[in-house]
């Protein structure tokens, strides 16, 4: 009797719910004996609204049928709402099948027969191919894949090693270039007030002081450098006993850059008493000027050769 009473109560609850368009779940979680979820999902959602189907009279949660966000008033305005089980598309499969069968013709049936025969011929071959793969070809395929993977990995590792070597070599080159640039800048700064004269005979006096006095006298008298512009002079390098006739370059230190520009003709060189007065350049600057003169001479020789061809 108790079971019959419980079923009767649940039926009355369902009937009372179906008379409404929209019902709401309790905001507090009820016990299983007090409340039964009407939605087919059978999941209790606190405070969730449910809408009833006009045909089967089942209630569905808003969130289960894509109506999440609607209020109770909005749900009540829905007319003739059908649940997913009762809703049918106007373009059903039966109608499509009937229309296709009506429009079917002899040509379509012939094409279908041809396709069917080809599929029947192709099916055994496909089955055999699958059996071959399963029975023996799988191992070959796996071995080939492993081999290809090992080759790709080896190439990748080799490339990484080469890149690292290149990067390390580049760092070494950059470091050497930077060191050379700093050295050249330092040398250039030391020589910025110096003049250089080559092929000047060296004095044969005994002491270095006497020889230096002779060089200073040569600068003032022969090269005609004024005393106010002259600071000191010295010979570059050490004497070579194997080359007794070799004269070391004479380096002259001047008072300022204006004097350097004046006596060297602004770096172009100045000839005084058969001696050329030039700037005291560092090795890098000398090489640059040598290459520039070489290129200029090459262009001049090319131009002269063209003139000879034009005017033989």
3D architecture notes:
The protein has 312 residues and is α+β, with helices and mostly antiparallel strands. It is built from seven helices and eight strands. The strands form two sheets. It has a five-stranded antiparallel beta sheet. It has a three-stranded antiparallel beta sheet with strand order 1-2-3. A hairpin with a 6-residue loop joins strand 2 (49-52) and strand 3. It starts with a helix and ends with a helix. Mean pLDDT is 75; it is low at 14-19 and 89-102.
Proportion of helical residues: 40-55%
Radius of gyration: 53 Å
Biggest sheet architecture: 5 strands, antiparallel
How many DSSP E strands? 8
Summed up, what is this model?
The chain is α+β, with helices and mostly antiparallel strands. It contains 7 helices and 8 strands; from the N terminus they run αβββαααβαββαββα. The strands form 2 sheets. A 5-stranded antiparallel β-sheet has the order 5-6-4-8-7. The chain has a 3-stranded antiparallel β-sheet with strand order 1-2-3.
Tag the structure with descriptive keywords.
312 residues, alpha+beta, five-stranded antiparallel β-sheet, 54% helix
């Amino acid at each position: 009797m108790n079971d019959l009473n419980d079923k009767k109560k649940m039926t009355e609850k369902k009937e009372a719910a179906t008379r409404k368009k929209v019902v709401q779940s309790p905001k507090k979680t009820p016990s299983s004996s007090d409340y039964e979820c009407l939605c087919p999902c059978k999941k209790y959602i606190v405070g969730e609204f449910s809408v009833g189907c006009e045909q089967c009279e089942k209630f569905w949660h808003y969130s289960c049928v894509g109506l999440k966000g609607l209020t109770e008033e909005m749900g009540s305005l829905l007319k003739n709402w059908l649940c997913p089980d009762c809703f049918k598309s106007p373009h059903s499969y039966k109608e499509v099948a009937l229309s296709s069968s009506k429009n079917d013709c002899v040509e379509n049936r012939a094409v279908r027969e041809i396709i069917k025969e080809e599929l029947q011929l192709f099916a055994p071959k496909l089955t055999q191919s699958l059996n071959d793969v399963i029975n023996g070809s799988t191992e070959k395929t796996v071995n080939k894949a492993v081999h290809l993977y090992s080759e790709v990995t080896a190439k990748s590792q080799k490339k990484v090693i080469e890149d690292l070597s290149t990067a390390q070599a580049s760092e070494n080159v950059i470091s050497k270039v930077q060191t050379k640039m700093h050295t050249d800048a330092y040398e250039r700064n030391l020589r910025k007030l110096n003049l250089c004269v080559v092929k000047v005979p060296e004095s044969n006096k005994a002491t270095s002081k006497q020889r230096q006095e002779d060089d200073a006298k040569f600068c003032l008298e022969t090269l005609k450098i004024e005393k106010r512009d002259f600071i000191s002079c010295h010979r570059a390098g050490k004497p070579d006993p194997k080359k007794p006739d070799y004269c070391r370059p004479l380096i002259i230190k001047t008072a300022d850059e204006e004097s350097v520009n004046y006596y060297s003709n602004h770096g172009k060189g100045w000839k005084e008493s058969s001696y050329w007065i030039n700037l005291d350049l560092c090795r890098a600057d000398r090489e640059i000027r040598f290459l520039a003169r070489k290129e200029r001479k090459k262009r001049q020789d090319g131009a002269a050769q063209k003139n000879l061809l034009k005017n033989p």
